Amino acid sequence: MFQDPIQQEKNRQVAEGAPQAIAWAKQYGVKILWGTDVFFGDDAFVNFRQEFAYRDRFFTPIEQMQQVTGNNGEILALSTWKDPYPHGDLGVIEEGAYADILLIDGDPTQDIRLFMDSDNIDLIMKDGRIYKNEL
């Protein structure tokens, strides 16, 4: 990722300014989403896990779960014709909504870093199909 010195410098500036931007966003009630395309390299799956640890110093576990589910789902739904899920709501648990379910071994409301280790995930269901079941 960031091989070019100009890109490396831009990334350094973003990383340096991110804590202040997060503080201002929280102070002024800005809806905060998840995106893992800047800080941690090229591997999206690694980036996603690292994001939990990075945000842990700024947000409670509940805030992080709201960002990655409800907030991201709400904003994705605004993408109109590009919305990959046009026939139901995202990021909510209600009849007719798209639901992906994770069952975690532990309490992520107390320790968000449980999401960083796939061994802590006992069940993965997406669109009603089970991809992992260790129950």
3D architecture notes:
The chain has 135 residues and is of the alpha+beta class. It has one domain. Helix content is 39%, strand content 12%. It contains three helices and three strands. The protein has helices spanning 5-27, 44-55, 61-77; strands spanning 100-104, 121-126, 129-133. Strands 1-2-3 form a three-stranded antiparallel β-sheet, with no helix packed on it. Strand 2 (121-126) and strand 3 form a beta hairpin. The mean pLDDT is 85.
What's the number of helices? 3
Largest sheet: 3 strands, antiparallel
Tell me the distance between the termini: 38 Å
Radius of gyration from CA coordinates: 17 Å
Quaternary assembly: single chain
Annotation, overall tally of beta strands: 3
Structural class: alpha+beta
Q: What helical percentage do the residues reach?
A: 25-40%
Domain module count: 1
| Overall outline | globular
Strand and helix order:
HHHEEE
Strand content: 5-15%
| Largest sheet strand order | 1-2-3
- Unreliable stretches: none
Mean pLDDT: 85
Task: Describe, in short, the structure shown.
This protein is α+β, with helices and mostly antiparallel strands. It has three helices and three strands.
Structure characteristics:
single chain, alpha+beta, 3-stranded antiparallel beta sheet, globular
Topology (SSEs and partners):
Blueprint (H helix, E strand, L loop, with lengths): L4 H23 L16 H12 L5 H17 L22 E5 L16 E6 L2 E5 L2
Antiparallel strand pairs: 1-2, 2-3
